[in-house]
């Protein structure tokens, strides 16, 4: 099982969470909540209002999200869903555990207790330069105050 940190539309209560609980796509088990150890710019961009974490460490905010354990099938689905490696790139990042529900082995429990774990995160280095000038967010909610509701893939033209 691999650990994945999601910060956008795949979180609970967000438009694409349905994929995280669809066992036909693989297994994803919620482990807890966290935030990036380093600061990153989280922007909402493009005509479909997609959240992107720009891979510019040290800029922006500590981004909040959810930690999941996923099997190989779900990881492969997420790679395809996230357009990896063209739209997003899956990289290991250090995540500070804020709340832990995971029931794993001793090593996993120790890592969580120490407060920082490594997770795969889908961020991007392939973005238009003007995105750096967009507002930075510390967490994402499709129906947030920003007024930029995410457009589901099935609703796009």
What is the gist of this entry?
The chain has 157 residues and is α+β, with helices and mostly antiparallel strands. It has helices spanning 17-20, 72-81, 106-114; strands at residues 2-6, 28-36, 42-45, 50-53, 64-70, 89-100, 116-123.
Structural class determined from secondary elements: alpha+beta
Compute the separation of the termini in Å: 36 Å
Q: What's the tally of helices? A: 3
Q: Please give the radius of gyration in angstroms.
A: 15 Å
* Helix coverage percent: 10-25%
Please write the string of helix (H) and strand (E) elements: EHEEEEHEHE
* Unreliable residue stretches: none
Mean pLDDT: 92
Strands across the major sheet, in which order?
1-5-2-6-7
Q: How would a textbook summarize the main sheet?
A: 5 strands, mixed, barrel
Global shape: globular
Strand content: 25-35%
Q: What's the β-strand tally? A: 7
Explain what you see.
- With 157 residues, the chain is of the alpha+beta class.
- The chain is 15% helix and 31% strand.
- The protein contains three helices and seven strands, in the order βαββββαβαβ.
- The strands form two sheets. Strands 1-5-2-6-7 form a five-stranded mixed β-barrel.
- A hairpin with a 4-residue loop joins strand 3 and strand 4.
- The N and C termini lie far apart (36 Å).
